[in-house]
């Protein structure tokens, strides 16, 4: 089941690293990410996409079957999603996933409608479904089902003015399993 858009995105603490549960909440309550995958030559490929979280903590991405995102997911199965905070100061969360290509027409259309709702800020009416179905067929759309297994967090850090007496601080984050419990 696709999760509805969050009324408010999770606000990242600026004084400590994110707990594992907060990392999952950050992903569930945001909507855009940099989708990255390995290329055979050169550096990684990256593009900005909307994603739809599910109640099973999968992240669904709509794309055209002939694009590199779908071809590499089918060939390699490893992709990274760098989930973006849309508020200043920016935070991000790197999510390492196993990806598969889904061709189920109903799922493809459901995800496209959910993406349109996140893009516009309001759900698409059910009357739009035939138009979205036609677009999905015409464009050869598929869904990339991304199953997270690890995360890497970077908290927002920013200098609000150029006062040398106030120092910006940083700390080391770590890669954490997706389903890790919070420390007691």
From TrEMBL:
It comes from the Bacteria. Residues 20-143 form the Pyridoxamine 5'-phosphate oxidase N-terminal domain. This is Pyridoxamine 5'-phosphate oxidase. The lineage of its organism: Bacteria, Bacillati, Actinomycetota, Actinomycetes, Mycobacteriales.
């Amino acid at each position: 089941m696709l999760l509805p858009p969050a009324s408010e995105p999770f606000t990242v603490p600026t004084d400590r690293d994110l707990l594992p549960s907060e990392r999952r909440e950050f992903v569930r309550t945001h909507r855009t990410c940099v989708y990255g995958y390995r290329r055979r030559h050169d550096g990684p490929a990256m593009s900005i996409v909307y994603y739809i979280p599910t109640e099973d903590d999968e992240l669904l991405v709509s794309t055209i079957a002939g694009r590199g995102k779908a071809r590499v997911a089918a060939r390699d199965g490893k992709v990274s999603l760098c989930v973006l905070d849309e508020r200043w100061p920016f935070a991000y969360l790197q999510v390492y996933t196993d990806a598969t290509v889904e061709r189920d027409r109903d799922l493809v259309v459901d995800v496209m409608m959910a993406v349109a709702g996140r893009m516009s800020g309001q759900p698409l009416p059910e009357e739009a479904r035939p138009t979205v179905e036609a677009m999905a067929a015409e464009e050869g759309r598929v869904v990339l089902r991304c199953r997270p297994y690890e995360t890497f967090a970077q908290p927002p850090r920013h200098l609000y003015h150029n006062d040398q007496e106030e120092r910006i601080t940083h700390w080391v984050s770590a890669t954490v399993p997706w389903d890790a419990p919070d420390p007691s």
